[in-house]
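Quick one:
INPUT:
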């Protein structure tokens, strides 16, 4: 049997996996964690331009200007370049704190997305004139590319809504759906698929804005459907979601209030090294026992 890991990174990863995918046995968590680490490493040869393709079943250049959505599936920073090479024109929206934290990498991405002199610009979620910039961009025939599951804890007042996600729920920012409602534009939920030793970007779901229904209802329904699509992918390939490593710090996941009952088994307790000895981490209740 594979020896369990005794690091905090694994402990939190494992706790998150249990709450969202409880059907995965505790003794499978170390295997899944190592698989997750390998997949998201720089050595993953799947993340190579020659191994990545856009689905030929999609007419990428015929999509009416709208919001392109990617998820943090490890390959998310590679697809913008592939889309730009195809001739898809877009600007990118993200949190300013995320950009500042990864400025070098994201400036390089902007350069890679500049094809034949057509440049992608960054829009930031805290800009006062954001909605007008986005409307102008769409009127010019450009898409807005957003990482749909991107979220940060930069602001304590970030508005979030809860959506059901796998066996639990997460708090997500509703801005994607709100913007599509205001601008009356389509949402293009793109998903990449692992096919053998290649990655293929497909467009399984297009959301056409329905402004005939209440705005809040539209936002709630749309965000739920978006994350239902991601959940379907993670049921097949749970190791692909980068966010398992930091759900506890980005505001998406909060342990439900109240004591969680556990059985007589103690598989959920993980022994971890501390400065002055050892402690046990309860991966169900997120409690530390000395």
């Amino acid at each position: 049997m594979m020896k369990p890991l005794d690091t905090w990174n694994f402990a939190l990863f494992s706790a998150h996996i249990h709450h969202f995918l409880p059907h995965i046995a505790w003794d499978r968590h170390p295997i899944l964690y190592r698989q997750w680490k390998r997949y998201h490493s720089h050595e993953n040869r799947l993340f190579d331009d020659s191994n990545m393709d856009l689905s030929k079943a999609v007419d990428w250049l015929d999509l009416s200007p709208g919001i392109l959505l990617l998820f943090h599936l490890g390959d998310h920073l590679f697809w913008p370049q592939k889309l730009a090479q195809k001739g898809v024109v877009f600007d990118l929206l993200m949190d300013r704190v995320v950009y500042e934290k990864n400025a070098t990498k994201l400036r390089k991405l902007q350069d890679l997305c500049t094809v034949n002199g057509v440049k992608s610009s960054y829009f930031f979620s805290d800009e006062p004139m954001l909605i007008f910039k986005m409307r102008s961009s769409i009127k010019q025939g450009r898409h807005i590319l957003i990482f749909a599951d991107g979220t940060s804890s930069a602001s304590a007042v970030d508005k979030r809504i809860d959506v059901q996600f796998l066996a639990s729920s997460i708090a997500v920012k509703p801005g994607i759906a709100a913007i599509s409602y205001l601008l009356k534009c389509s949402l293009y939920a793109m998903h990449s698929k692992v096919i053998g030793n290649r990655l293929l970007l497909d467009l399984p779901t297009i959301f056409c804005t329905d402004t005939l229904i209440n705005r809040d209802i539209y936002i709630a329904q749309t965000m739920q459907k978006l994350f239902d699509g991601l959940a379907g992918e993670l049921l097949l390939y749970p190791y692909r979601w980068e966010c398992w490593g930091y759900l506890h710090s980005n505001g998406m996941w909060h342990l439900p209030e109240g004591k969680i009952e556990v059985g007589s088994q103690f598989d959920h307790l993980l022994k971890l090294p501390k400065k002055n000895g050892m402690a046990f981490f309860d991966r169900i209740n997120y409690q530390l026992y000395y």
